[in-house]
Specification:
The complex is a heterodimer. Chain A is α/β, with parallel strands linked by helices. Chain A is built from ten helices and six strands. In chain A, 48% of the residues lie in helices and 16% in strands. Chain A is globular and about 40 Å long. Chain B has one domain: 3-Layer(aba) Sandwich (Rossmann fold), CATH 3.40.50. In chain B, strand 7, helix 7 and strand 8 form a beta-alpha-beta unit. The longest helix of chain B is centred in the last third of the chain and has 12 residues. The chains are: A alpha/beta, B alpha/beta.
């Protein structure tokens, strides 16, 4: 990797130093199914559970990536992307869902295809109590604003769920969030 | 008048408008398939523009929004600067007031200058304009290639003009915009 590439994708260099995701293949498989679904733009607020996806997309010359200051930016970017003929995915943690609610009126009302992958906090072996309120409200909040909410608890289930969610989003004009259970992500080390 | 000048000189640019008077002003200059009007999602205009600019790198994208709408997307200037599109121009129609809700004074009337904020974020070009002659010069400037994102503040009079309301059927406006670019509806 060249120095200039590292400067352009600092997260790629950072994640390369992290250990592999405890012997599991699902993060790479999720990347593969998103690529197969024609995803060519990705926006994110980082989360440890999205490390591999951020790394793979950032290193992919076919994909435009955006690091966001707050999650709702990704919802608007995804809408603009679809206006211009691209397919976008937005990565965030459950705490970020709360930041998105009013911006989600754009894809819901204009029926823009939308695919969000949400890593869950505040629901399983959570150490930080501040994560619990939004974690517990994530699914209900998304449903309340009009999104379809899917959820996966195992790696294999997640790969299948993301594949069909991408199909429903872009082929059937749906706005979909896939919640990735904290039990699957594992306990954060403090 | 300033918006009409910018749109008459758009030269194929795709246009996204922010909630409130900017959407009315752009519609008043002529409803077109290559306009996308936001009627809500406050803070979304600049970022819809970014997504569109990244998806259509060969086309120029012009976002026309207000000071209140852009204030809600303050962080977008950091995101756009880092993304570094060379085909995205943000036009902030700055009347220093929240015109849609009763003309309350906004931050831009209390010392916040979007051209300075954008400059600090690393935008390639910024300026604050106060006359129609300067808008004429801006129309020429926008035709030239950019090194990165550009932001121009048009200081305008705070007034409530008769409204020219764009269509509110967001699905129809989306579909006609995509059709203009040759894309299917779904």
């Amino acid at each position: 990797m060249t120095a200039s590439l590292q400067a352009k994708h600092p997260e790629a260099a950072a994640s390369a130093a992290l250990p592999a995701a405890s012997g599991t293949q699902w993060p790479d498989q999720v990347y593969e199914v998103l690529k197969a679904a024609g995803i060519n733009q990705m926006s994110y607020v980082p989360d440890a559970g999205h490390t591999t996806l951020i790394h793979r997309f950032s290193a992919d010359p076919e994909v435009v990536t955006n690091v966001l200051t707050t999650e709702e930016e990704g919802i608007a970017i995804a809408a603009g992307s679809w206006l211009g003929g691209k397919r976008s995915v937005v990565l965030m943690q459950s705490s970020g869902v709360g930041n998105c609610i009013n911006m989600l009126s754009l894809p819901v009302q204009a029926r823009f295809p939308l695919l969000i992958l949400v890593t869950m906090r505040g629901e399983w072996a959570e150490f930080n109590p501040w994560q619990v309120p939004m974690g517990q409200a994530t699914g209900a909040s998304l449903r309340a604003i009009g999104l379809r909410v899917l959820r996966a608890e195992t790696g294999a289930d997640l790969v299948d769920t993301v594949a069909q969610a991408a199909s429903m989003a872009f082929d059937a004009d749906q706005q979909i969030a896939v919640l990735i259970g904290q039990r699957l992500l594992g306990k954060k080390k403090w | 008048m300033a918006v009409k000048k910018l749109l008459d000189a758009r030269d194929g640019a795709l246009v996204v408008t922010g909630l409130g008077s900017p959407s009315y002003d752009v519609h008043a200059a002529g409803d077109r398939d290559d306009n996308y009007y936001l009627w809500g999602a406050m803070g979304g205009a600049a970022l819809v523009g970014l997504g569109l600019a990244q998806a259509q790198p060969q086309r120029r994208v012009m976002v026309i929004t207000g000071d209140g709408e852009q204030l809600m997307a303050f962080g977008s200037l950091a995101t756009i600067s880092v993304a570094r599109p060379t085909n995205l121009d943000l036009i902030v129609l700055d009347n220093q007031h929240f015109g849609e809700t009763g003309m309350q004074s906004s931050h831009t009337g209390r010392g916040i200058s979007f051209d300075k904020v954008a400059s600090a974020c690393g935008f390639a070009e910024v300026a604050e304009l106060r006359s129609l002659e300067e808008v004429d010069a801006l129309c020429e400037r926008l035709r030239r290639p950019a090194e990165g994102p550009r932001l121009f503040v048009l200081k305008i009079t705070a007034e409530n003009l008769p409204r020219s309301l764009p269509p509110r059927d967001a699905v129809a406006v989306k579909n006609r915009f995509r059709a203009h670019l040759g894309f299917a509806t779904c």
